[in-house]
Amino acid sequence: MNIVVGVTGGIAAYKSVQLVRLLIKAGHEVTVIPTEDALRFVGLPTWEAISRNPVTTSVHDDVAKVRHVALGQDADLVVVAPATANTIAKMTAGIADNLLGTTLLATEAPVLIAPAMHAEMWRHPSTQANIATLQSRGVHIVGPAVGELAGGDSGPGRMIEPEGIADAALALLAPRDLEGLRIAISAGGTREPIDPVRYLGNRSSGRQGVALAAEAAARGAEVTLVAANVAGDVLAPAQHPSVRIRHVGTAAELGQAMAEAAASADAIVMAAAVADYRPVEVSPRKLTKEAGGIPAIELAENEDIVAGLVRARRDGQLIVGFAAETPGTEGDQEELLARARRKQQRKGVDLLVVNEVGWERGFEAVENAVIVLAPDGAVAATASGSKREVAAGILDVLRPLWTGSRGEE
């Protein structure tokens, strides 16, 4: 696919270098159109080197090929990141006083913008009116996030991270091959309280489950995302009209929410990292050293949520489990797969996604690598890269099983 990335004159322009890299890594052809002000932050040689395409800001270059129109006509998607308040205002008014402006007017492809500006500028009625107008015309908006801004200020207006913009861009290019699928997905890590301050938990950020929800929705599915302690910025890619988000904290809450979502789901994906144990007693007050001694915490085993979903499954309902496994002795992958296959048989899931984890992989990482086991335990697929790319690989395996369960070719 041909993607045009417009870069405007904001400090966040440096982040768009990573955005271009991610889009190219996903297999797309990328042309960068910086404004003159954008080149004050990142120079033209950088854009040419990272995109591997010539870069210009002028409507007077390559006139014979009518470049100021052709770029928009040939684009499958146009992304503007960062999109400053000035550029957003120009887009609303249809002003085309540079190459990016003419490209935006000439394109019939989807347009995605990632706003970036100071909080006061974002909240200004003019900007809010311009955003509403662009949305009414079908322009897609991703962000902004709330956080630290240039000059030490903080508030809404921070451009979301390149990975989030890339996810949103790829979603607009995704095939609509999951139309009609209702899917319940869990994400994040449960927390079992010890006292009002402490809990038993794990390092799961929820990124992989969120990526699955975003990818499934982009491909036409109706999604219920049960998010266990997932931060707001991590949830951003799942902010989609076809995604309903339920927030939970403990394993018991997640189990109840998933059981309710499963009642109307065609497929269930248990990507959340669920605590195996919980404290038998939860202290109403913080446990302190002043009480003396080391507190003994008695644990009880949590209910196996996946097993419960398998027992209650309807005819034709597909269930995908996740197995977060550390490698065996000296990284023996066969040992890891043997453990995963035993878990697949024990749980009774259709697919098992084997996620190798460690101190620096799997949990909290931006990228991931998984092995998907088919119903008979054979390796159906492997997927690696960004968590969105991994999500696509998992859904590619799920799709034929779902269509097969409906008796379709």
Describe the protein in words.
The chain has 14 helices and 19 strands. With 409 residues, the protein is α/β, with parallel strands linked by helices. The protein folds into two domains: 2-172, 3-Layer(aba) Sandwich (Rossmann fold), CATH 3.40.50.1950; 176-405, CoaB-like (Rossmann fold, 3-Layer(aba) Sandwich). The strands form five sheets. An eight-stranded mixed sheet has the order 12-11-8-13-16-17-18-19, with helices on both faces. The two termini are 27 Å apart. The mean pLDDT is 88. Residues 178-398 form the DNA/pantothenate metabolism flavoprotein C-terminal domain.
CATH architecture of the largest domain, by name, is 3-Layer(aba) Sandwich
Oligomer: single chain
> In terms of per-residue confidence, which ranges show pLDDT below 50 for 5 or more consecutive residues?
none
CATH homologous superfamily label of the largest domain: CoaB-like
Number of strands: 19
Number of helices: 14
Counting structural domains, the number is: 2
Physical arrangement of strands within the biggest beta sheet? 12-11-8-13-16-17-18-19
Integer average pLDDT: 88
